[in-house]
Amino acid sequence: MPKLSTQRFKFLYCNALWGARCGKTARRVLLGAGSTRVKPRLPSTNHNINHEWLQENIPMNERIMKQFLKSGFIYKGNLFPTDRGSPQGGAISSLYANMALDGIEKLIQDKYHRNSKGKIENHYRAKTKVNIIRYADDFVITADTKEIAEEVKNLVSQFLETRGLTLSEEKTVITHIDNGFDFLGWTFRKFKGKLIIKPSKSSIKALVRKCATIILKEGKATSQSDLIR
Q: Which residues, in sequence order, are bridge partners of residue 74?
């Protein structure tokens, strides 16, 4: 079902979206990556999506969608209702999350890239340097100044509110590229005018822990050749 739905709804996706799409991998995001960055974080997209908004805006059979959204969940043998959000790890939850966030690029284009006649011009884009790169519900927005970044943050917050979503004030960061930021397991930072991209400290620690678990705990009785494979 996700594969069929992705083909049907492909026209809704913005060009800045990389997550949960065929041929759009985390590695390719680096090819699309102003001096100031807004690193928004959503508490949990799947858990908080507004059902009414989805049913009114997603071009899908309403009966099937309602059955999926209102199916509830079972915990310790008891059935609980689902009044908002979609099941974490559900068959089309990632698709719903992507489609709920679809439109952020157009929001930015309308505000910062269009001239008085409504046409997109590179002159306006270069003036504010406001651009967005999104991988599923994780995204980065660039801006030329901190003031513009704050303005974009408020604009995105209003956009998300109608969909039942909010930005995490604790995890949403506005930072200068010289100070760097983490995105999709990588650290992006400018040093002496040169952009440096390297694995983030947290992703390296996670890899070391995983290797330690496989080698020292799970693989104690495993041969070296089997571990390498």
A: 79
Global confidence as pTM: 0.71
Q: How far apart are CA 58 and CA 142, in angstroms?
A: 28
- Which residue blocks in 58-212 are alpha helix, DSSP H? 62-69, 93-101, 104-108, 122-128, 146-161, 201-212
Tens-digit pLDDT profile for the chain (229 aa)? 444 444 444 444 455 555 545 555 555 554 444 556 566 655 555 567 778 888 888 777 888 887 777 777 777 888 877 777 666 666 667 777 778 888 888 888 888 888 878 788 877 777 888 888 887 778 888 888 889 999 999 999 999 888 888 887 777 888 898 898 888 888 988 888 888 889 999 999 999 999 888 888 877 778 878 777 7
Structure tokens at 202: 């947290």
Q: How is residue 125 written in tokens?
A: 């884009």
Torsion of CA 155, 98, 183, 21, to 10 degrees: -140
